[in-house]
Amino acid sequence: LEDKMSERGKVARSKKIATTYKERRSKFWPELTDSDFWSKDNKGFVCVPRSMPILMLIMDHFSPNKPVSKTYFSLWARCFDEMIVRADNQVVLATEAGFSGERKVTTWKSRIQKLEDLGFIKSKEAFDGDLIVLLNPFKVVLELFEKDKSPALILLRDALETRVLEVNSKDLINLEQVEEEEVKE
Question: Which is nearest to 93 in space by CA: 82, 80, 109?
């Protein structure tokens, strides 16, 4: 019963926030209508953690001069809940990640390899093209934080933890609890 009430409360809170923001939007930009904004009701959307921009900065921290975050995000945009991407048309995937020219696929493949080396993805060859699975980025960054204690990364960790708290996410807390339980066993 408590879970149902808290779920109902969350939905009501969400609706209230949406209504408040819509009213503010109308007040500050009265000339705009609903058609001026993209809506997830149009289909073709994917869920993204609100802290993804910071996760992307952390990824790029570990790949200096060869940023991997756009490649990762373009994969994320192709995922469903199973977090698998068929990499059957690498020219398209390379283009979506922002690469161009003769070496765009080679560059894309090098970024995929770096993402795999860092632990953000795993890939396998399949008869219909490579399959790529995206792992929980929060779990990966927690492991990377253990390997790098540089001031720049400490600042990014603080930014990530702050953002996670701001949006009331349980991503880091849940993972830290699982790690603690695994250590006890």
Answer: 109
One-letter amino acid at 84 equals I
* Phi and psi, residue 169, nearest 5°: -80, 145
Per DSSP, which regions of 66-167 are E strands? 84-87, 121-124, 130-134
Separation between Cα atoms, residue 2 and residue 124, nearest integer Å: 43
Give the per-residue pLDDT at 66: 97
Mean pLDDT of 70-75: 97
Q: Please check the confidence at residue 108 and state whether its pLDDT lies above 90.
A: yes
CB 119 within 8 A of CB 132: no
Which are the contacts of 97, defined by CB distance < 8 A and separation ≥ 6?
Answer: 70, 71, 74, 108, 111
Tokens of 114: 């770096």
Residues in the chain: 185
CB contact at 8 A, 161 and 79:
no
- What is the Cα–Cα distance from 43 to 7, expressed in whole angstroms? 24
Does residue 168 carry a pLDDT above 70? yes
Q: Are 104 and 82 in contact (CB under 8 A)?
A: no
Rg (CA), the chain: 20
Q: Residue 15 — pLDDT band, cuts 50, 70, 90?
A: confident
